UniProtKB/TrEMBL annotation:
Keywords for this protein: Signal
Signal peptide boundaries: 1-32
Taxon lineage: Bacteria, Bacillati, Actinomycetota, Actinomycetes, Propionibacteriales
Gene source species: Microlunatus soli
Domain Calcineurin-like phosphoesterase, first and last residues per copy: 149-352
Matches recorded under InterPro entries: Calcineurin-like_PHP (IPR004843), Metallo-depent_PP-like (IPR029052), PAPs_N (IPR015914), Purple_acid_Pase-like_N (IPR008963)
Name of protein: Calcineurin-like phosphoesterase
Keyword Signal in record: yes
GO molecular function per UniProt: acid phosphatase activity; metal ion binding
Start and end residues of each Purple acid phosphatase N-terminal domain: 43-139
Length: 517
């Protein structure tokens, strides 16, 4: 990557905090490669976020001092020798103070709007004191319904294995696997719980700076329960069209008030992201009203509606029978069917599941069979997907369907533990994974992809630290060094799948726009 900076002889301009779209023409000069690494004022934790649509992006980052922060932006093809020209656009950042332990740091954020569709851009952030490296990103295609793909990641939860650095390496390995194998993916969508501890900046550093991928492909952040106890998620992630309506937080529940609800569109898909931490014991009318209003205002021009939140309704593991999920299975599912939601993406349970079509809280088509790979998505049919750990930091084993209202699937003929009635597929192998979604005008294709395997101990921290005792199959087991008691391998009594292989796949076609009959 090229390093560059604004000519340091240029007088510092007064920052206009509200002017997030103001452009200024500047000159550029070369920047020694070691200046970024050596500078105590260097920006860090840079995250490229989604914008309101495919022609906008949001940026957020941290900086150790209060120097006025800017973004320098230019179409990549307009750079000269890897350097910005005097035609580059400069956008002033909006900043506010953030305390990081005993040290003062500042977070900055910018909206980059008015971008050309399907165009490569280069950018850097910082000030005349220090600039970041130059990063690149590509905007999405314009035109409702053109094919595109996005990736969905469950709970990186950096720090949850007990080793934040190891978790960061696992997270980076997953992102880099996706970068090599899913080069056409236009968005990265979060299932929440980016970090283990809401305000632990070491956890955030290892989430944001372990890989450059999050600085080059837009990240759609979701708040999880592990981030609800502080404001750091808002400082590290800048989301568009965000609503912090007090009605989302009944009884002034400020512990859950960090993340608001937000929406954005991308090439014919309406994404709605809600803070599922803020939930009443009996129902959730405020969030449901928000989803209804957003769909009413923006759904008509969308071919698909994708809802994202953290707490999985039809999860297969440790959280399957949580009391709040029992309630959500009652009030969420009927509302989502009536509103025409097509796909619900969830995290929280650190395991993989894909539901049958669910309509009004029941299986929509009695003929749909386990692992069926092609399904017609009927009116009111909604598919619920839970993503496993994308970093390998924590896994939950699948549970038996013991609750009468969430009992076993009568079509599951396997020996031993049965899958839950709502799920066409459930999986736990203690390997890192993510979900690829290919979007077409008349179909969605979902594929669960292994981003690691059982030989990949260095980037599978929950296994390497012996937090879980097997990998690939319960018949396998970890091998301990008798001298150090450290895991040195996995005894494969049952063959295990390779990195990149498919966990699960399904194509949904649709006769008409989803919605109530």
């Amino acid at each position: 990557m090229a390093f560059s900076m604004i000519n340091s002889s240029r007088p510092r301009r007064r920052r206009v905090a509200a002017a997030v779209g103001v452009a200024t023409l500047v000159g550029c000069g070369a920047f020694a490669a070691n200046a970024y690494a050596d500078s105590p004022a260097a920006p860090y934790d840079i995250l490229l976020g989604v914008g309101s649509d495919e022609t906008s992006r949001n940026l957020a980052w941290y900086v150790p001092d209060d120097a006025d922060q800017e973004v320098v932006l230019q179409e990549t093809k307009r750079l000269r020798g890897g350097e910005f020209t005097d035609r580059a656009r400069v956008v002033d950042a909006v900043e506010k103070q953030n305390w990081v332990g005993a040290t003062t740091a500042y977070n900055a954020r910018v909206t980059l709007d008015g971008l050309k569709p399907n165009t490569g851009y280069s950018y850097k952030v910082g000030s005349s004191d220090a600039w970041s490296p130059t990063y690149t990103f590509t905007t999405g295609n314009s035109g409702n319904g053109r094919p595109f793909s996005f990736l969905f990641f469950g709970d990186p939860q950096i720090g949850s294995s007990g080793d934040a650095v190891a978790d960061g390496k696992g997270w980076a390995a997953t992102l880099e696997h996706a970068q090599r194998n899913d080069t056409d993916a236009e968005l990265l969508v979060s299932g929440g719980d980016q970090v283990e501890s809401a305000n632990n900046e070491d956890h955030w550093n290892n989430f944001a700076d372990s890989s450059d991928v999050l600085k080059q492909v837009a990240w759609a952040s979701t708040i999880g329960n592990h981030e609800s106890g502080g404001q750091a998620i808002l400082q590290h992630n800048f989301t568009p069209n965000t609503d912090h309506d007090p009605s989302f937080y009944p009884g002034g529940n400020t512990a859950t008030a960090a993340g608001g609800d937000y929406w954005f569109t991308h090439n014919g898909v309406l994404f709605i992201d809600i803070n599922s931490n803020a939930y009443r014991d009996d129902s959730d009318p405020a969030h449901l009203a928000y989803v209804k209003d957003v769909i009413a205002e923006h759904g008509a021009g969308s071919k698909w509606t994708v809802l994202v939140y953290h707490h999985s309704i039809y999860s297969p593991a440790a959280h399957a029978n949580d009391s709040d999920n029992k309630v959500r299975r009652q009030d969420f599912t009927t509302e989502f069917s009536e509103l025409g939601v097509d796909l619900v993406l969830q995290g929280h349970d650190h395991s993989y599941s894909r539901s049958y079509q669910i309509k009004n809280g029941a299986k929509a088509d009695a003929r749909e069979t386990p692992d069926q790979n092609k399904v017609d998505l009927g009116l009111g049919g909604v598919v619920y997907v839970t993503a496993n750990s994308a970093s390998g930091s924590k896994y939950y084993d699948l549970t038996a369907p013991s609750d009468p209202s969430y009992g076993p699937d009568p079509l599951d003929t396997s020996d031993g533990r049965k899958r839950h009635w709502a799920n066409a597929a459930e999986n736990q192998e203690h390997v890192r994974s993510y979900i690829r979604v290919d979007v077409r005008s008349d179909r969605l294709q979902l594929r669960g992809i292994r981003a690691g395997d059982c030989d990949d101990l260095a980037t599978n921290p929950a296994v390497a630290r012996n937090n879980v005792k097997w990998c690939g199959s319960e018949q396998n087991n970890t091998i301990l060094d008798p001298a150090t008691n450290k895991v040195i391998g996995v005894q494969k009594n049952v063959p295990v799948a390779e990195t990149g292989s498919l966990i699960d796949g399904q194509t949904y076609t649709r006769h008409a726009k989803n919605g109530a009959e």
